[in-house]
Amino acid sequence: MHMHILTDKYSYSFLCSWSSPPTRLENPAFKEFCAQKEKSRSCQGLSLISFLLLPMQRITRLPLLVLAVLNRVPFEDPERDLVERTLKTVQEVCQGCVSTHTYVRVYG
């Protein structure tokens, strides 16, 4: 499984949230670009950082969704093992995201 890809993307988006504010302050063209885009109707008033973090926020909700599905699958169902493995996988991905987030906050 390529879970490192997801945790690496989380690292990237989290680092962007740290690096974007200084970049926006230092680069007038980037600051103006972001201001225009954030005011546009298509962005619904959301910042660039919001768009970068949104996929990772969704990933961290997956264990709850898969657990809800697992609770509805009968024990004798042949697909139950697949759902259990899926739950384990998404929990590992989320743990990687949390670990990366903690590491960046501490060692930034």
What does this structure look like?
The protein is 81% helix and 0% strand. It has 108 residues and is mainly α. It has a single domain, classed as Up-down Bundle (Dbl Homology Domain, Chain A), CATH 1.20.900. α1 runs parallel beside α5 and α4 runs antiparallel to α5. 9% of the residues are buried. The model has no long low-confidence stretch (mean pLDDT 75).
Strand content: under 5%
- The total number of structural domains is 1
Q: According to CATH, what is the class? A: Mainly Alpha
- Terminal residue distance: 27 Å
What keyword list fits this structure?
single chain, 108 residues, mainly alpha, Dbl Homology Domain, Chain A, 5 helices, 0% strand
Topology, element by element:
Layout: H1 3-26, H2 28-39, H3 48-59, H4 62-72, H5 80-107
Helix pairs in contact: 1-2, 1-3, 1-5, 4-5
The gist of it:
This protein has one domain (3-107): Up-down Bundle (Dbl Homology Domain, Chain A), CATH 1.20.900. It has helices spanning 3-26, 28-39, 48-59, 62-72, 80-107.
